[in-house]
Specification:
Aspartate Aminotransferase, domain 2, Aspartate Aminotransferase, domain 1, 2 domains, seven-stranded mixed β-sheet, 15 helices, about 15% strand, binds pyridoxal-5'-phosphate
Length: about 400
């Protein structure tokens, strides 16, 4: 007997789509507190660099265990200003990864510095410290490790190389709010660190926002001046600055959301643990557990040799996927052929075509997580053989 719905031309209902992120969820669950914060700003009448920004800066520094925090307009500005405040000059080389959001490179170029690429470790997908020496030249002034997807980079080894070559280290923490190495939060290892509060980040505003944290009073003072026209006092500029101030409204909202960050990060990690179990016998590679680190699980990015087919398999069940990133920076039209190191990125080259992001945000319902796990369990692909990169780079000492 036929199915009556399809016999008369109706398709069975598709399951509702599970999205990669749900930035509006906080507005639903915390609506009253967010509206109260907005009202406080509105009625306070002090709209630029007022008490909300000051309080958020204090609370964010405290949360991280850093001495100083300066709120700025975006994560891209945070990185650019952190580089400048640390002493990076136009023409200096800054070693970073191509496996990152393009914003990392935008920030380096924004201050007239020159990006140089280094490859990533295939396990952490972050800067490979073993390769830094061949990327460093006499012009290298800073290293910018990116804690990609929320996985902390190998800071101890990176700092060791940085000390030897007298480079600054600016951490790109845009995806790693609350991630730790041991019991120390990322953002407190280098000379300074840049955070983005773009709405989909683990700590997200309802517009653009960012911050730089550091443990250095001189860097902090330069940042406070740089973000506001280079003023050292009102209307007196002693350096060329810009306008990149954290908005008072965004700061007020971030203060509300900061109260939930640890709980929501924990939820992300719990969801990730379900995915790891579901993937165990599928042949698909889940993000590796890197000892002594706590992943912020901003994104759950798996690795598949049949990535496009897996994306299709999930899409048929109404599960959205995304690519972070479809093209590594050194291959993007604006950057191709421009920076040193682009010809020695075999891991970046091989990995980006295999990576697939699946929804892992804390606003997923149990039913949605179960739906995703069920769908993953019905997937299978040949198990990858030996990983050609791991033996070559991972076990060498720095
Ligand atoms: C790794 C990384 N760096 C920097 C940025 C820039 O942050 P924003 O979008 O706030 O400028 C982002 C955000 O997209 C990012 O993911």
């Amino acid at each position: 007997m036929g199915n009556m719905a399809t016999d008369i031309g109706l398709q069975p209902p598709r399951p509702s789509t599970i999205h990669i992120a749900d930035p509006g969820a906080d507005a639903r669950s915390d609506r009253e507190m967010i509206l109260a914060a907005i009202d406080r700003v509105l009625c306070g009448g002090h709209y630029i660099l007022g008490r909300e920004v000051e309080s958020f800066e204090k609370e964010w520094a405290e949360y991280l265990g850093a001495s100083y925090c300066v709120g700025v307009a975006s994560g891209t500005d945070a990185l650019a200003l952190a580089l400048r405040a640390s002493g990076v000059q136009p023409g200096d080389e800054v070693v970073t990864v191509s496996h990152t959001a393009v914003a990392t490179i935008v920030a380096i170029e924004a201050i007239g510095a020159v990006p140089v690429f280094v490859d990533i470790d295939p396990r952490s997908r972050c800067m490979d410290p073993h390769l830094l020496r061949e990327a460093i030249t006499s012009r290298t002034r800073a290293l910018v490790p990116v804690h990609i997807y929320g996985q902390p980079a190998a800071m101890e080894q990176i700092l060791c190389v940085a000390r030897q070559y007298q480079c600054f280290v600016i951490e790109d923490c845009a995806q790693a709010h609350g991630a730790t190495i041991g019991d120390q939060k990322v953002g407190t290892f280098g000379d300074a660190a840049a955070f983005s509060f773009y709405p989909t980040k683990n700590l997200g505003a309802i517009g653009d926002a960012g911050a730089v944290v550091s443990n250095d009073a001189a860097i902090d003072a330069r940042l406070r001046s740089l973000r506001q026209y280079g003023w050292h006092e009102r209307y007196v500029s002693d350096q060329v600055g810009t306008n990149s101030r954290l908005d008072e409204l965004q700061a007020a909202i971030l203060r509300v959301k900061l109260g939930h960050l640890d709980r929501r990060n924990h939820m992300r990690r719990t969801i990730a643990a379900h995915y790891r179990t579901a993937l165990a016998s599928t042949g698909t590679v889940a993000p590796r557990d890197i000892p002594n680190t706590t992943h912020a699980m901003h994104l759950f990015v798996l690795e598949s040799r049949m990535r496009d087919r897996l994306a299709g398999h999930l899409s048929e069940a109404g599960i959205a996927t995304a690519l972070h990133y479809p093209i590594p920076v050194h291959r993007q039209p604006a950057y191709v052929g421009r920076f040193a190191g682009a010809d020695r990125l075999p891991v970046t080259e091989a990995l980006y075509e295999r990576l697939l992001t699946i929804p892992c945000h804390p606003d997923l319902t149990e039913e949605q997580v179960e739906r995703i796990c069920d769908r993953l369990r019905t997937w299978s692909e040949p198990t990858s053989q030996s990983n050609p990169w791991i033996s070559s780079s991972h076990h060498r000492s720095v």
